[in-house]
Amino acid sequence: MCRSIKTLRPPAIPEEATEDDIRAAALQYVRKVSGFRAPAAHNREVFEHAVEAVAAATAELLAGLEVRGGAARRAG
After folding, report:
1. Whole-prediction pTM
2. Are residues 33 and 5 in contact, defined by beta-carbon separation less than 8 angstroms?
């Protein structure tokens, strides 16, 4: 997978992942899967929609994860 995507849950990061962290990871994922660093104008809308959908799914995942010895995450 893409090495630019970092782990967004403790203990990999000391604090809670920010919306910017989540969006950056989503953007890297969509870039990797689509094969485009930046979409052409005719693909921009679907590209941005995919980034938002992946970011939302990531935030939901992080919010629901339980870290051993800790409470559920509350991501942005």
Report:
1. 0.80
2. no
